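Run: sequence + adenosine-5'-diphosphate -> complex structure.
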Amino acid sequence: LSSVMASIELMQKGVAGELAKMQQTVMGIAYNSAVQMLDMINALLDVSRLESGRMPVNQRATALRPLIEHATESLSSLANEQRVKISFSLPAQLPLVHADGELIMRVIQNLLGNALKFSGRSSSITLRAEASLPDSAKTAPITISVADQGIGIAPQDQEKIFAKFSQVGERRGGTGLGLTFCKLVVEAHGGRIWVQSTPGQGSTFFFTLPTT
Ligand code: ADP
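>> structure
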């Protein structure tokens, strides 16, 4: 696939002769399809690595705020294009989580990406983090949530969407693997992920992480 992409890039640069406008367009389509296929292969590999317990999960004391900010920055141009406002509600003092920062950032990126994909223009998305009510454990886990005002998910589909390849309602591209990845990562941390949603009004995805 890398060699397919490199070859297309060479063509686009005119190495095999100057391309006409239409030929450039066709090469652009081929390149984007190759990128999509690469994304799908990587998503499949990540999910199988997690399922077989072979994904390294390096849990250490991690600050949540930079992860949330970084994930948001990476999607900010898409959000600007759609005129979607992303806001935060994070307590000033957030305890450190016991987590693999790289994997958790990808979970947040996936949830934010979905929130953007299934929201209309000029809506808003809110990211929250709060300490869950103290339970019997010594350190209460933190709950992180991503709330959108998008199309929502029917009650009978709210469990299904975490299964591999599951896509419900309107198709808007993607692989149906993003939420499976999120669930496997969160569960590898001993956490839980779930959704609350009202069709036509929006969805909020929640997940928990252990604190240090
Ligand atoms: P993908 O986004 O690639 O289709 P996911 O596993 O991330 O795969 O999501 C699975 C399905 O769950 C989506 O196709 C969509 O039907 C539904 N979904 C996920 N997030 C949202 C959301 N924020 N609002 C509405 N539907 C959603």
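>> summary
The chain has a mean pLDDT of 93. The first strand starts at residue 60 and ends at 62.
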